[in-house]
Amino acid sequence: MADQHTPSDRIVVISADTHGGAELREYKDYLPQEWHERFDAWAGSYESPWDDLVNDTKFKNWDSDRRIQQLEEDGIAAEVLIPNTIPPFFPTIQNIVSLPTTRDEYERRMAGLRAHNRWAEEFCKRTPGRRRALFQIFPNDVDDAIVEVEWAARTGVAAGVLMPGIPPNHPAGALYDSRLDPLWERCAALDIPVCQHEGTGIPDYPDHPASAGISSYEQSYFAQRSLWTLILGGVFERHPNLKYTFIEQGVNWIPQALDRLDNTIAAAKKRPWADMFFRGAYEALSMTAWEYWHRNCYVGHPLRPVEVEDFVQLGTDHIMWGSDYPHTDATSPYSREAIRLTLADVDEEVVRKILGGNAATVFGFDVEALQPVADRIGPTLEEVRQPLARTDYPDAEWFHIRAEVRSTVLG
């Protein structure tokens, strides 16, 4: 049957949250020769703790053609590539690993990050216009970080840089430390967004049976704390053109955090005993927390129905949808259903922004160039408008999306 929809009905979907990386030993090709012997020793003894990096779905991280095929089946025209596999000399994925504490550890891991960055550049260029990468940096050495940001800008495929949070009391200092100002300034000047993924900024925990559970429970908090430290620490005040994006951290917490920050500062100004603690922070600020959010900040996430109520308050230009491919709790391969579940009752203009337009603006995609892809594989507005019915569910155990969404529908 012929397609009854005009091309303009098709929506350009850009996932602001997908993951990928090279196969472990492939990274050797992207390391300088002086690291090869140490890499062989490290790789020969390393065993991944992550099932999706060793089971029969691991190819999704690096098989470009099959990846594109699966994303197209999911209605996705383009993606922001976030690291997923283990880079050289790391104990685990970089989103949750502690920051280096010694120079030797830093140099080894920085070599590993650069190897992944060079791999990601090539991987993006295999599909021109359809992939842009978040290239990784460390806050430990500002000069090194700036060099990597400038390299990223020259690649032509940079969506931004992935900046880890700094755990409390870490030798690297804090994200609002003035020593990082040259880095923020360079990112803003080059229009390179700074992004932060869930799981980062976690402190070290003691060797205890409960530590794994406690760290998992707290990981969202330690990633989210970057929002109020960047605001109170004056980073957005000093760098008004800096774009900062929170990836895969949810949405509902943001209005609460901004309200609490503004209310706390307002209350402190009325109470001398509280004002003596906060004055050093708020006196340097010319705007409210909400105003800094609307000027500097964005969020990318596999959106849930319960988060729709926050769209207007946060600003519909500041929210981006992501599938979290290829993780087992991603919306893939049922992203079309997940989109309908969340956005069926949302205005068309907002739907188009959240599914692709905002990501194009923030991360540098060309929507017009992607429209022919969307005309071929993208969801139509009519499709998005169809609320999910129980008869729409696959026969298998519904679809692998986050537990909150699953409970919303299945009850």
Keywords:
disordered C terminus, 10% strand, 16 helices, 411 residues, globular, alpha/beta, eight-stranded parallel beta sheet
Number of strands: 8
**Computed structural class:** alpha/beta
Oligomer classification: single chain
* Largest sheet, spatial ordering of strands: 1-2-3-4-5-6-7-8
Silhouette:
globular
Count of separate DSSP helical elements: 16
Percent of residues in β-strands? 5-15%
Major β-sheet profile: 8 strands, parallel
Ranges where pLDDT stays below 50 over 5 or more residues in a row are: 395-411
Report the C-alpha radius of gyration, rounded.
Answer: 21 Å
User: H/E series, N to C?
Assistant: EHHEHEHEHEHHEHHHEHEHHHHH
- Overall average residue pLDDT: 89
Helix content: 40-55%
Distance between the termini: 36 Å
Walkthrough of the structure:
The protein is α/β, with parallel strands linked by helices. It has helices at residues 36-45, 64-73, 103-125, 142-155, 181-189, 211-232, 235-238, 253-268, 272-282, 289-296, 311-314, 335-343, 348-363, 367-377, 381-385, 403-410, and strands at residues 14-20, 78-83, 131-136, 158-162, 194-197, 244-247, 297-301, 319-321. The chain contains 16 helices and eight strands. The chain has an eight-stranded parallel β-sheet, sandwiched between helices. It is globular, with a radius of gyration of 21 Å.
Describe the structure in brief:
This protein is of the alpha/beta class and 411 residues long. It has helices at 36-45, 64-73, 103-125, 142-155, 181-189, 211-232, 235-238, 253-268, 272-282, 289-296, 311-314, 335-343, 348-363, 367-377, 381-385, 403-410, and strands at residues 14-20, 78-83, 131-136, 158-162, 194-197, 244-247, 297-301, 319-321.
